[in-house]
What does this fold into?
Amino acid sequence: MSGISPWTILLAAILTNNILLSHYLGMCSFIALSRRIDTAVGMGLAVTFVSTATTGLNWVIYHTMLTSHHMQLEVFALIVFIAVIAAFVQVVEMALERFSPRLFQAMGIYLPLITVNCAILGVSLFMVIRNYGFLQSLAYGFGSGLGWMLAILLMAGIRRRLRFSDVPQGLSGVGITLVVTGIMAMAFMAFSGMVHIQ
Amino acid sequence: MTTLLISLAVFLILIELLVAGIFLARRFLQSSGPFPIVINDEKTVEAAEPDKLLSHLYAAGIFIPSSCGGRGTCGLCRVQVKKPQSTCTALEEEHLSARERAEGYRLSCMVRVNGPMHIRVPEDILGAREVRAIVESNTPVTADIVHMALSIPEDFRFEAGQYVQIRIPAPESPRGFEFRAYSVASDPGVPGRLELAIRKIPGGLGSPWLHARKPGDELFLTGPYGEWRLSPDPYCELLLVSGGVGITPLRAILHAAARTPAKRVHFYHGARTREDLFWTDEWKALQERFPHWRFTLALSHEPDGSDWDGPRGFVHEVVDATWEPSGAVQVFLCGPPAMMEALQRVLDEKGVSPADIYADAF
It folds into this structure.
């Protein structure tokens, strides 16, 4: 287990090791939902919540069931994590609908999209590769969610301005979004001296 | 070998646990019916399981109009939800005014029933029912419009200006059919008969299918819907303006107005060229019967060299130039959205109160 403080991991996950801008994970929903600020906020909150909770849950399952005692079941980690994320999202959806219809209306349409968001799965897999402890994993999951939300919010703001700018026809839409994402990723590299995990 | 078996067993147990978790959550978190839906404080419908409000009402024989198949795009299926309080989705905000939203109006296709509800449905919709109709004739009147006559049960009555929905087979829809709305073109005073004018929209769902119907074919209608009501006051002037196939509900209104011959009627119709005009013999006959009525046909794209001696230009320009209000007036407008906006401006400048204007854009 690496000895980095959870706070450092949290900060790094937001800025230096941003799951979207440094690993390019979670791109499809990033491009699809960054057209408007309100949808970007909704999706960002949903991703943050699900990534924090599933990273914790996956940590417990990985360390108690997949690698405990004499079992060497790490190979199943990928498929088990996918199943856990999908099941968790389903249960959360039902719980929200029952207990907080208002939150369900705000977040409901984004939850099913998260089931297939690779950023969430990526966070769980990185947690295993980097051998994080439970608190470190939670911090990493929460930070990655916040980092993803920061990236999609920035992009939603930029795309709002792009609507009034003169984008070459062949690049408009997804094309220019990818170009801008690349430039944003380079800008985020400026943070890399701050903290270092990994 | 043992390792493989153990791995497989642990993996399967994990997956089973997850599935069990989902089932448990469904059992305890999803509320189960039946839920009572109280309509207008008088009628109660039981909703057996969580589903769209629109589907529950349809299953209970309350035919809320809806022509988009419950996707929240046509804006027709509005109902007032009294209890529980809920907020509109972004999709609904496009169809409901701020005032309607404050009064609890929702699109019933966007409301999920997962508890008891109190709703209010317009009275005319409660009267709507489904009937079987037989095609008597289906004749082309222009290049893209057919005039369809149907025989319907004699007790299916409607008012001038109302519309019906026709059930159209749609293999891709989950329930196998969709509804499309059409205004009734025929005299409401003739029981057992209903006429429509249908413009073919290439690639559309309803109009190509309806164009292909032959005499003797069977259709299912729901309705009637719509709150257009012709004023019975003989001294209330009647201004009718239509564009293209928007002439349909106005023909029904003209026939109904013929029962109050003292009424002054001004009928304006706009089309692109002479080929797009139809039912002109009927207007001639009505003009001969009622010399004090005025019929004006305006063509916007008629070639310059033709022998058309009527007005040219857009119909709102012709109304602006030739019509002035004199006393009480009731206005019915039906046509494409751009024409309707231009007409609303013209009428506003002439001082016609919005309360006297009935408008239906398509």
